[in-house]
UniProtKB/TrEMBL annotation:
Superkingdom, natural source: Bacteria
Database matches in SMART domains: AAA, SRP54, SRP54_N
Free-text domain note: Composed of three domains: the N-terminal N domain, which is responsible for interactions with the ribosome, the central G domain, which binds GTP, and the C-terminal M domain, which binds the RNA and the signal sequence of the RNC.
Enzyme Commission number(s): 3.6.5.4
Subcellular location: Cytoplasm
EC main group: hydrolase
Catalytic activity as recorded in UniProt: GTP + H2O = GDP + phosphate + H(+)
Organism: Adlercreutzia shanghongiae
Lineage: Bacteria, Bacillati, Actinomycetota, Coriobacteriia, Eggerthellales
Name used for this protein in its record: Signal recognition particle protein
Encoding gene (name): ffh
Record's subunit section: Part of the signal recognition particle protein translocation system, which is composed of SRP and FtsY.
Occurrences of domain SRP54-type proteins GTP-binding (ranges): 267-280
Keyword Hydrolase: yes
Length: 439
């Protein structure tokens, strides 16, 4: 899957590598080739256009890591953008606390729903859940038999019902899960060959009746350009939570996998690549992006360079804070850290005399949160340079945060005091250190 794209991209990069320095023309030529490679992989043309525009802009902005060659920097940017395109956020399936948890699968006929339902059940079973499969496709006569066969194969109970009403079957199936102590149900619904109103109405009716915890859309990775229309239609009708990309083992171009996230904003949660029950993998955007780019050695070089840069940035940051130059963003960060350590009250109570201070009401747990609301109403520039905060800016911030200007002024006073304290403390530490050094 996507091997052709992978080969094409690697060819483009090795062409760049032989050049050493890269001119704007080189970048433009490479971007044209990337555009063609993506289109040939059947990635949606709008998605390609945006992807290339973003990538090109970053390449031309000379946003570079010194430790990488110009060609490696281009690879890094393409890798970043590819990961972004596939969805940077965590896409794991998180089950809710309701028992049984209800997962509903939607998608076109032939997209691989029934197969995916069984694979998902198998996966959940491996994770010590007790799933139940519901055969909600009452139109394709063989669908329930197919699900039953798959269920028998993996040792998972299948509820078929005997009616023709998928809403009733879904309801009864959930009751069957309760009666048989199953903690997750997976509803396989009917699909049509093309998007049509009846299919959407039925999906909506099931959704309304059983209020699924998760709706996953099964999308055939080989759908090509049409993937946009299909997912948009489902998205509008049932607003699904994530995607299972099926048939990733196909030899075709597989561009659907690269388009779906950008088009729907919904994460790909699983990729299905084969007929066997265990061929459903959790989707990792970064791993997929790396797999598409191939070039394991270049990728690890890039990762190394990024790590070094992050470390340098962190050191600079620490140095800045040591010099007492804290910003309002640091203030918010300190607040978050404080919260992580159990909140102000807990920290204060651990100090000598802390309990007394707490008892006298000198410590206000909500104060830090109130500060954060005010800081969040500031622009980035204001947070970095608090001296910008004149009267009219303070009035605007107060309105945004829903507080009075006096609150803003008090907050700034506290901030300035903290800043002074940090400066004094670090100066003290430095003096001590230099005294020690002289000894
Ligand atoms: P449904 O109509 O959406 O329920 O689709 P099915 O689950 O019946 O799948 C349609 C066809 O695609 C069947 O022949 C499946 O065996 C096949 N199929 C489903 N998922 C995969 C997959 O990940 N890889 C491959 N190669 N075939 C698949």
């Amino acid at each position: 899957m996507l091997e052709n794209l992978s080969e094409r991209l690697q060819g483009i990069f090795s062409g760049l590598k032989s050049k050493g320095r890269l001119t704007e023309d080189d970048i433009n030529a490479a971007m044209r080739e990337i555009r063609l490679a993506l289109l040939e992989a059947d990635v949606n043309f709008k998605v390609v256009k945006n992807f290339v525009a973003r990538t090109k802009e970053r390449c031309l902005a000379a946003e570079v890591l010194d430790s990488l060659t110009p060609a490696q920097n281009v690879v890094k940017i393409v890798l970043d953008e590819l990961t972004e395109l596939l969805g940077r956020t965590d896409s794991r399936l998180v089950l809710g606390s309701r028992i049984p948890n209800v997962i509903m699968l939607v998608g076109l006929q032939g997209s691989g729903k029934t197969t995916a339902a069984a694979k998902l059940a198998y996966r959940l079973k491996q994770e010590n859940h007790a799933p139940l499969l519901i055969a909600g496709d009452v139109y394709r006569p063989a669908a329930a038999d197919q699900l039953q066969t798959l269920g028998d194969e993996i040792g998972v109970r299948v509820y078929r019902g005997d009616g023709r009403d998928p809403v009733a079957i879904a309801r009864e199936g959930i009751q069957d899960a309760i009666d048989n102590l199953r903690d997750v149900v997976i509803i396989d619904t009917a699909g049509r060959l093309h998007v049509d109103a009846d299919m959407m109405e039925e999906a909506q009716a099931i959704k309304q009746a059983v209020k699924p915890d998760q709706i996953l859309m099964v999308v055939d990775a080989m759908t090509g350009q049409d993937v946009v229309n299909v997912v948009e239609a489902f998205s509008a009708a049932v607003d699904f939570d994530g995607v299972i990309m099926s048939k990733m083992d196909g030899d075709a171009r597989g561009g659907g996998a690269l388009s779906v996230r950008e088009v729907t904003g919904k994460p790909i949660k699983f990729i299905s690549s084969g007929e066997k029950p265990d061929s459903l993998e959790v989707f990792h955007p970064d791993r997929m992006a790396k797999r598409i780019l191939g070039m394991g050695d270049v990728v690890s070089l890039i990762e190394q360079a990024v790590r070094v840069q992050q470390q340098e940035e962190e050191e600079l940051e620490a140095e800045r804070m040591m010099r007492g130059q804290i910003t309002l963003d640091d203030f918010v960060m300190m607040n978050a850290q404080m919260r992580k350590m159990g909140g102000v009250q807990k920290l204060v109570s651990a100090l000598p005399g802390g309990d007394k201070a707490l008892a006298s009401g000198q410590v206000d747990e909500g104060a830090l949160d109130a500060m954060e609301v005010i800081i969040n109403s500031m622009t980035k520039a204001e947070r970095a340079k608090p001296e910008l905060l004149n009267g009219s800016r303070r009035a605007r911030i107060a309105r945004g945060a829903g507080v009075t200007v006096t609150d803003v002024n008090q907050m700034m006073k506290k901030f300035n005091e903290t800043k002074k304290m940090v400066k004094q403390a670090t100066a003290g530490m430095e003096q001590q250190a230099s005294r020690k050094g002289k000894k």
